[in-house]
Amino acid sequence: MNFQRDEYYQVGKNITRRQEDQLSTQLAVFKSALVNFASDHGEEIIHNLEFRTKFTQMCQSVGVDPLNLQIMTSGSSGGAGSANKSNNNNNNNGGGEIALAVRVVEECHKTRDANGGLISFKELLLRLKGEDDTSGSSNSNINVTEQDITQCLTKLNSLGNGYETLNISGKKWLKFTNNVSNDHKRVYELCEFMGGMVTYRLLRDNYQWDQVRCKTVIDEMIMKGFLWVDQGESETQFWEPSWLSV
Amino acid sequence: MSTAFEFPKIHSFIPFYTKQPNATVLNNQLDSWCEILLGYCQHYKITSMSPITGKILHSQLEEDEIKDIPSLFENKSIKRVANDEFKTLIFKHLISNQNKAELKNPKSPENGVIVFWRSLAEWAQVLYSFVQKTGQLGSVLTVYELTKSTDSGLTDDIRNLEYDLLVKVLKVLVKQGKAQILMSEDGHEIGGVKIV
Prior knowledge:
Family (chain B): Belongs to the VPS25 family.
Keywords (chain B): Protein transport, Transport
Protein name (chain B): Vacuolar protein-sorting-associated protein 25
Structural class of chain A: mainly alpha
Oligomer: heterodimer
GO molecular function (chain B): protein homodimerization activity; structural molecule activity
Organism (chain B): [Candida] railenensis
């Protein structure tokens, strides 16, 4: 009796698994068809309101984020060549840029508690790509470059000046908070040079800042969440919080 | 258990092992610690730990597998280790803010905390469906039969289940009206369980 029940259970499990596999293959095929469709009919999707609503509904019913689709389709045509890219901008790549801008804002909000509102382009790119891996859709490789981000930021800034690009030791950072002083930037400059961290001694030796200035700047930066403290060694270290790009 | 738990990148971030002075950042840091801790416990089937030293008190894995479990609170590659005070704070966060752990005895923390990477309700479900699938609903089972026996078709899910946790799970089933507990003669231990 017991044995039989077990057998039935096994058979049932096998059938369910087979159906699951089939369904996920179908979904994957459908998703890639959607990507193609979105790139072929991009213009229509943007201009025809009714068409767009239907398209969005279809995306939602299969669990595809239309924002992602737009980034991907604009990214893939842009990646074909630089000549193509400029051409693309003249037409309406706008959808893709706005979609990317939304993702950038999302990432900035998500990381704000950990980094205080200052994120390196390198980390931002990693996060934008990484986010996609976790969603499980392996075929949707977003190919975003620093240039894409710079471009979508110009779109964002037409809504007000919340997001600004900073140059620190040749590396680009995105600032989405007020109150980044020159001294703060110089601390990050030194972090960049030292592989992510500074100490009081390093600040004194490199910038000839006196103790009070060092402490004020560091304390301010800790308060704003720009630096994490490490007391694992005899000398306290202050780390810039972008562990993803380490 | 051949694969090792994959620690996220923040586990190799040097200041992750120091309690952060900024309250917002600290909260974020503690959330990250708890997330890693729960994933780690689930991976290595750890159900209780010491909230003071972070030592593993019970895992459902076999003895020789337990020896190979890497340390959660120490990262040798970056030479960092969380101190006991910070570990206690992490467990406090796990208990009070996340409700994902419980002191075995609130009066003596050194007895350890039970870590709920699976909630009590979920455990109750797992235990119930095991008894149901093996056709033992209505019969009296001993604690040995429920967690140790090798010939009753025990699933990996519940083999070696910790006694303290089992008691909590059974109490949930009793509340749902699905189990009766028979105490042993001295009245301190569970003699048998009838799940219906």
